[in-house]
Amino acid sequence: MELDLAGMHKLAAEQGIDAQTLDDALAEAFRLAYLKMPHAAKHARVELDERAGTFTVWARDEIPQEPTEDNPYPEPELGPEYDDTPTDFDRVAASAARQTITQLFRQAADNKVFGAFAGQKGKLITGTVQQDAKDPKNVHIAIGDVEALLPQREQVPGERYRHGQRLRVYVVNVSRGLRGPEIIVSRSHPELVRRLFEREVPELVSGAVSIMAIAREAGARTKIAVRANTPGVNPKGALIGPGGSRVRAVMENLGKEKIDIVDWSDDPAKFVAAALSPAHAVSVQVVSEKNQTAIAFIHEDQLSLAIGKEGQNARLAAKLTGWKIGIESEEKRRAMEQLSKQTANVAQAATAAKPAVQSAASAKPVAQPASKPADKA
Question: Per the confidence metrics, is the pTM higher than 0.70?
Answer without folding.
Answer: no
